[in-house]
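pipeline/complex-builder :: batch 7 item 3
reading input block
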Amino acid sequence: MLRKLLKHEWKSVSKILFPLNLGIIVLTVIGCIILSTDIFDTKNALPITLTLVMFYTLSIMTFSGITLIYIYVHFYKNLFTAEGYLWHTLPVTRTQLFHAKLLAGCFWCSLNSLFTVLSTAALGFAAGFHASKDQIDAAQNLFIDGFSSNAAGETAAGFSFSDIFGFSPVIFVILLLLTLLTACISSVLMGYLSILLGQLMEKYRLAAAIGFYIAIYLITQTLSSLAMLVPYIRLMLSGGDNSASFFNSFFSTMIPTAIISQIILILIFYVASLFLIRRTINLE
Amino acid sequence: MILLECKELTKKYGNHTALSNINLQIESGHIIGLLGPNGSGKTTLLKLINGLLTPSSGTICVNGKPVGVESKRVISYLPDHTYLNGAMRVRDIMDFFADFYQDFDPMRAYDMLAKLQINPNHKLKTLSKGTQEKVQLILVMSRRANLYILDEPIAGVDPAARDYILDTILSNYEETASILISTHLISDIENILDEVIFIQNGTIHTHATVDDLRQKEHKSIDTIFREVFKC
């Protein structure tokens, strides 16, 4: 039954989120094309540059925001409005319902985050590549060589990738993806938990859910800010002798701390959500 | 055979008691009218049976098992409002039901759609309210369920549509199944009922067969209802 739920969940969610994420790809392609033109080479290009950068940033933020909000709204609408009469009378357990929504939500949220990161990277690469266009061909080769040697763990300045980032490039990318994934799962679960907590109220359940979301958000942000202080304090106490060792300590401590704290949040949100959805359902 | 059994069933919303100590048994092969004025607790009882509300106390068993996956497999429920995603096409909703309910008969459903000239390729939200209600009824009655629970199936539709709905209900339910219909439009349905349950202020006032009640009171069910619930 979970497979059937996932199938219908996928069909339902994709109608909105597929075009939305396609928008990021289109925006990236357009951005790369613009960056490969001479539009920014004129003297008065600054206003156009700023406008386009602002447009791109706002668009990407909007796409990400809409994706997450849509995932929350979809969960709420399906399970706790009139449509809940359909979903809750299907011959499936509430746990299966919850897992189907969670898997679909996490997938789309992660995909959206991945597209956002890749889009930014693609534009950064396109801008860097174009910047060396007016130089001799050797400069472009130098840019590509520099990019590939960085990816291979070497830099011209004498510091390897590992010296600066604390990890080999492959491990670094894996850790970044893991950070992205855990952040997405925890964001989706935080929304679901808030909605489920809102259902405990007799009245104004949606408003209560929003209130719970803000409260949980503030608590988690405060706690994660405190958790992030640990690496800073460690850095202060160790007193790195150069910028490479500073960044090395920063990244090698910060990324695992972020991942571990997200995993802890995921576990808390998941267990609490599962407890609530199994315990009571009182549709209005 | 006892199909549905409620024991000491109570539902409270804060300080308000919607249902109080309901004891009820429904057997297979009957059409039962759940009758009562607005706010008497009809919809609350139906929602509890369908697992959409959690009882404050008491138990509900369907085919001897508590409300859960097994009970949902054998109950076909029509709520008192539109509950389907309006953005879905009628055909997609049919596929949805066929996927989840083993007892759903798509042939029967498409046949009824054709008789009503409802295009399965249309999105639900493009249909009129009355047609949407008919689609919902078709979905619910196209299942070969043990218990059909219909909450106000004829409220808000014109008399011609009422006849169609009642005809659809009668011609599509399994003889061994039971139908629990909640309504306050008694005169329209009293001829099809085997039993009636009068519910008042969250308690069962009367539970009897229609024949017994008519013989005892020498009045129609509609008249008895008006007397019992006189304001």
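note: Residues 32 and 180 of chain B are 5 Å apart (CA to CA).
queue -> next item
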